[in-house]
Amino acid sequence: MLTSVPRGTKDILPDTIHQWLYLEEKIRELCAKYGFNEIRTPLFEHTELFLRGIGETTDVVEKEMYTFEDRGGRSITLRPENTASAVRAYLQNKLYADNNLTKLFYIGSMFRYDKPQAGRYREFHQFGVEAIGEQNPLMDAEVISLGADFLKELGLTDVILKINSVGCPKCRPVYREKLQAFFKDKFEHLCKDCQSRFDRNPLRILDCKNPTCKELSVGVPEITDCLCDECADHFEHLQHHLKAIGVDFVLDPRLVRGLDYYTKTAFEFKYTPLGAQSAVLGGGRYDGLIEECGGNPTPAVGFATGLERVLLALETQQLLPKNKEKCTVFIVAMGDKAKEPAFKLLHELRSKNIAALMDYAGRSMKAQMKQANKHNAQYAIILGEDEIDKQIATVRNMNDSEQMEIPFDTLIDKIIFEVNK
Ligand code: HAM
């Protein structure tokens, strides 16, 4: 117990941290280009926010939340997603006061009591964006194109964008009724979960992974046939805008997403080699959520992508970046007399912004050279008792093994010169 992480969580170790930094750098560059600003919200919120925001009949709320009572008797939940928190922060901090449109992005841990497997964890990381305050389908197209750009900039190919419209409170009841009529005769054969979804949230049946439920829903009525004029028009325009900017998509009338706040647009980017966890990025419009959380009716659209899944996808296409540790100089100090001058040199190099390391344990020359290689050092500076006596250091270029003898008083300048050559 003491030496293992809780199930479904992972350490991100120094040998892979560069992959995360790489993703974060890409995200920040991309969001700056699209005018989205970073927000960081607490890892936990009042449970009520998620009950209201995500929907009480969703799997996330019913089965997957980490909810506990704190010492003050409040019900607290580790955030299972960040849209509800972003909306809460938007309202609490009146972010609408200065702008009609607020564009936010976030990177951080989310928590769901999911069944852990490759690509599915209990603590996972999302990058997400939320554009709050714009109803024009151009906004949906911008958000989708940002998602597409993110995956494209990482070099990922064979990703399929699926889009759908899940309607609005005006037209969805019509579809609900049609769905219930369709599943009525099949009710007995549906799984237990879907039987309970039948009354409470029949759209969820379309999202069920149970093979029997999947089979039973063959030939199900399509929501896009039930859309009101406004939703149909919005969906039509969105498709038009995506085509205009060359974002390929396929229509998937069964795409309903796992959270209840969606209205109109719903979309997912799928990368099929990840199997059951093929959804690498998902989102949609949520025009009712801000009002549900106590604000004025405000349209909004966003997405989130699971960064672990993105890394898994990059791995399958050998697109993960190499670990480039930045150690320019490794000082090989031989013998006690060399240690302190070497330590001073180490300090001076760092003060001149040169990444430098040395060994303190007095290992053999061979062992220290091995360390220099392991750290990808460009140069090794060898300081032995002889060198100290003569005030001359031996500098070895680790790429071609060429050696130079450099007097101490010009050593730093020479290294700076060589490094910047
Ligand atoms: P979501 O579809 O629940 O949407 O999650 C978004 C993405 O997070 C998924 O496509 C997947 O890549 C990743 N993900 C979800 N659960 C796990 C898990 N257990 N382990 C690993 N990765 C996971 C949302 O969270 C919405 N808040 C997205 C959104 C933002 N909609 C509008 N704005």
TrEMBL record:
<dbReference type="Pfam" id="PF13393">
    <property type="entry name" value="tRNA-synt_His"/>
</dbReference>
<dbReference type="GO" id="GO:0005524">
    <property type="term" value="F:ATP binding"/>
</dbReference>
<dbReference type="GO" id="GO:0016740">
    <property type="term" value="F:transferase activity"/>
</dbReference>
<feature type="binding site">
    <location>
        <position position="112"/>
    </location>
    <ligand>
        <name>L-histidine</name>
    </ligand>
</feature>
<dbReference type="InterPro" id="IPR015807">
    <property type="entry name" value="His-tRNA-ligase"/>
</dbReference>
<keyword id="KW-0963">Cytoplasm</keyword>
<keyword id="KW-0436">Ligase</keyword>
<dbReference type="InterPro" id="IPR004154">
    <property type="entry name" value="Anticodon-bd"/>
</dbReference>
<comment type="similarity">
    <text>Belongs to the class-II aminoacyl-tRNA synthetase family.</text>
</comment>
<dbReference type="InterPro" id="IPR041715">
    <property type="entry name" value="HisRS-like_core"/>
</dbReference>
<dbReference type="GO" id="GO:0005737">
    <property type="term" value="C:cytoplasm"/>
</dbReference>
<feature type="binding site">
    <location>
        <begin position="81"/>
        <end position="83"/>
    </location>
    <ligand>
        <name>L-histidine</name>
    </ligand>
</feature>
<feature type="binding site">
    <location>
        <position position="126"/>
    </location>
    <ligand>
        <name>L-histidine</name>
    </ligand>
</feature>
<dbReference type="InterPro" id="IPR004516">
    <property type="entry name" value="HisRS/HisZ"/>
</dbReference>
<keyword id="KW-0648">Protein biosynthesis</keyword>
<dbReference type="InterPro" id="IPR045864">
    <property type="entry name" value="aa-tRNA-synth_II/BPL/LPL"/>
</dbReference>
<dbReference type="InterPro" id="IPR033656">
    <property type="entry name" value="HisRS_anticodon"/>
</dbReference>
<dbReference type="GO" id="GO:0140096">
    <property type="term" value="F:catalytic activity, acting on a protein"/>
</dbReference>
<feature type="domain" description="Aminoacyl-transfer RNA synthetases class-II family profile">
    <location>
        <begin position="1"/>
        <end position="341"/>
    </location>
</feature>
<protein>
    <recommendedName>
        <fullName>Histidine--tRNA ligase</fullName>
        <ecNumber>6.1.1.21</ecNumber>
    </recommendedName>
</protein>
<dbReference type="GO" id="GO:0004821">
    <property type="term" value="F:histidine-tRNA ligase activity"/>
</dbReference>
<feature type="binding site">
    <location>
        <position position="130"/>
    </location>
    <ligand>
        <name>L-histidine</name>
    </ligand>
</feature>
<dbReference type="GO" id="GO:0006427">
    <property type="term" value="P:histidyl-tRNA aminoacylation"/>
</dbReference>
<keyword id="KW-0030">Aminoacyl-tRNA synthetase</keyword>
<dbReference type="InterPro" id="IPR036621">
    <property type="entry name" value="Anticodon-bd_dom_sf"/>
</dbReference>
<feature type="binding site">
    <location>
        <position position="257"/>
    </location>
    <ligand>
        <name>L-histidine</name>
    </ligand>
</feature>
<comment type="subunit">
    <text>Homodimer.</text>
</comment>
<dbReference type="InterPro" id="IPR006195">
    <property type="entry name" value="aa-tRNA-synth_II"/>
</dbReference>
<feature type="binding site">
    <location>
        <begin position="261"/>
        <end position="262"/>
    </location>
    <ligand>
        <name>L-histidine</name>
    </ligand>
</feature>
<keyword id="KW-0547">Nucleotide-binding</keyword>
<keyword id="KW-0067">ATP-binding</keyword>
<dbReference type="Pfam" id="PF03129">
    <property type="entry name" value="HGTP_anticodon"/>
</dbReference>
